[in-house]
Amino acid sequence: MFEIKPIPAETKRGWKVLIDGAEIKPAHISLESGFGTLEYGLRPEGYDGWTFKEKNGGGSILIPYSRIDGDIIVGLIEERRLNIGETPVLCAIGGFVDPHESHRDAQIREAREETGLDSSEAKRLEGLPANTNRSFFVTDPSLDEGVDAYSLYVPQERLRKTSDGTWQFGDDAPDPDVMIEKRHAVRFLPWREAIRRTPDAIARAGIAQLLADLL
């Protein structure tokens, strides 16, 4: 079992810990939130470091896709994430699992919140749940901890081509109650281009699982 323990006083440290600008040498730090626990201490490997364990079993992503002219196109959401730079980037639709929620329920909720898409018919893609940062995140795939990926087929007639060569939902889809800005934030593009253009490792992993299912 992976466990962070207190750091013995004589242990050489690789991390400098600053609190309000002042250096301290704590034996153990634990920061908790509704999403999970961030810990700093002695790792099982024998050195100091930090880890993050998600509280409710991880997260879920949705990869909507279609087939156009014999090619598989996948939908990613264009959004601004300041931790990935100033320019909007393409990311997978999805997020954390909330308390008392299954991975499937999480992807349905996240898809609705982020895009207005009804993904209740989405298919869970085969494969172990993903650990999205193997250096620091703590998961146990045997306990279904990590990120599950789902796919949802979108008929071509629900999409329209844009001036930049990508595809997006038409104005009558997916749900008239959702702001059009949310619908049009989802960009569909050929899977090879999507992999090259997204900096989101979870999106790349989800696309790989989709291809393993379709090809």
Automatic annotation (TrEMBL):
A matching Pfam family: NUDIX
Residue stretches making up the Nudix hydrolase domain: 42-211
Name of the protein described by the UniProt record: Nudix hydrolase domain-containing protein
Species, as recorded: Candidatus Kaiserbacteria bacterium RIFCSPHIGHO2_01_FULL_56_24
